[in-house]
Amino acid sequence: MNELIERVWVYGRDGARHHVEIYQDRTATSSSNGSSAIPESATARLKADGIKLNYIDENTFRNPITGQLLYRHKITTVELANLAEV
Fold this sequence. Notes:
Order of helices and strands: EEEEEEH
Mean pLDDT: 85
């Protein structure tokens, strides 16, 4: 069971903006007290084509198809220069 928990814009190093939807995965359980769901990991997907992104950290994702890193905020020229050094 997946629950949409967040919609965000992410940006590539080229400045391109992408819409991402983040879902909380849950496993349904049942017990004598009734049914419930246990939260698992979250899944991020590009809204345009449904590609599942890899989490690098809470603000960074990697597109497994292109290898492109995507950032929650638009990166500045200084941040871009620092990334080039890595």
